Amino acid sequence: MATLADAPALEIARLPHPAPMKADVRETVIADPGFGRVFTDHMVTVDYVEGEDGVGGWHNAVLGPRGPIPLDPAASVLHYAQEIFEGLKAYALADGSMALFRPDQNAKRFNASARRLAMPEIPEELFIEACRQLVLTDADWFPKVEGGSLYIRPFMFATEAFLGVRPAKQYKFVVILSPAGNYFKSGSPAVSVWVSEYTRAAPGGTGAAKCGGNYAASLVPTGEAFAHGHDQVVFLDAEERRWIEELGGMNLFFVFDDGTLLTPPLSGTILPGITRDSLLTLAREEGLTVREERYGIDQWEEDARSGRLLETFACGTAAVVTPVGRVAGREHDFTIGTGGPGQLTGKLKQRLVDIQRGAAEDRHGWVMKIA
Ligand code: PLP
Ligand code: COI
Fold first, then answer.
1. Could you say which DSSP state residue 240 is in?
2. Burial profile 258-281: b = 16 or more Cβ within 10 angstroms, e = fewer
3. Is 210 a catalytic residue?
4. Domain coordinates of the chain in residue numbers?
């Protein structure tokens, strides 16, 4: 007997948009997109239901007009937060074509998050194909600003109406697109970060998963950072409140005067960033000594003051590579280097951006051309 699992997962049906945004209005809204404020005309949705016999199936893949999604008030995502997401970008290449950057890695991390949240995995090809088709459909939304991209946000949530605490049997996978410019509003050459007394993730928790709950828990500490006049929050480890972990939505790197580059290890409490992984590879190619080691907050201050630490930068899909110029907290206040962008930070950022935009050779097969 055929089950939903046998359905051709890659066939994405198309629903015509009755009223896409008029070109002149669209051009106005994408003229200064910032981050996450503007959305394109279409979205992809795919449903999942666990069969009676325990066989799961993805079905009903549709690329149609973007709009509200009806949800039962008992849908378990609204009660127990079974939700995960990803973030990747489509870039315009120097030759005029479009490309996704390492989408296979986002698909893999999405499924790792799904496993941690007791959710079904989605075929990697379906994840990538949904992103690809959506970007091609809404390619006119590509922002023509310096550093512009189409930010792709795939996510999945539990739709089953059920209040018992167990994994839901029904889910929806959705992909939306957001024209993006700079992540940080300040436009300043380096950001300022606030060391939080709140923690983000404990050993055995969900720190390595990209689930909405982690970000909900970061809002109070991030609000505290903003209230003190800083751009982002730095989280320390939950056990000793000593080891630097990451920012609310970015990984951290440290550059020393002996040419070494250090980043906290993937201990299970931080997100395994794809930008982090790419930069580690590029830094090794540059001949730098790269260390994935724990680094303490007091040491960070001491090294910044002594001049042993030259640079610190944050990295992630949304923020790309962003220099950190100042660090503050209840017990800390120090400047890194001159407080502005450092040399190696700039060099690594340029190497990465050149590959992402097709201006440098893609030796690792990271760039997936889609048109
Ligand atoms: N850390 C956190 C908590 C994040 O939300 C992100 C962003 O996705 C990152 C790190 C960087 O990950 P990536 O480089 O894959 O975007
Ligand atoms: C990203 O860089 O893609 C992120 O998800 C960071 C933040 C917007 C949550």
1. T
2. eeebbbbeeeebbbbbbbbebbbe
3. yes
4. 13-180, 191-356
- Atom from ligand 2 closest to the CA of residue 210: 5
Q: Above 90 in pLDDT, residue 184?
A: no
Take atom 2 of ligand 1 and give the residue whose Cα is closest. Answer: 249
Domain 13-180: give its CATH code.
3.30.470.10
Ligand 2: lining residues by beta carbon, under 6 Å? 87, 215, 249, 316-318
**Ranges assigned E (strand) in 33-169:** 42-50, 56-65, 83-85, 88-92, 98-101, 149-158
Stretch (H or E) spanning 252: strand 251-256
Q: Hey, what CATH class is 191-356 in?
A: alpha beta
Residue with the smallest CA separation from ligand 1 atom 3 is 249
Give the number of the atom of ligand 1 that is nearest the alpha carbon of residue 86: 8
Please report how the helices 274-285 and 343-356 are oriented relative to each other, as an axis angle in degrees rounded to 10: 110
* pTM > 0.70: yes or no: yes
pLDDT in tens, 122-136: 999 999 999 999 999
How far does the centroid of ligand 1 lie from the alpha carbon of residue 9, in Å?
28
For ligand 2, the distance from its centroid to the CA atom of residue 355, given in whole angstroms, is 20
- Measured between alpha carbons, how far is 193 from 191 in angstroms, rounded to an integer? 7
Mean pLDDT of 103-110: 98
- Spatial separation of the C-alpha atoms in residues 207 and 204, rounded to whole Å: 8
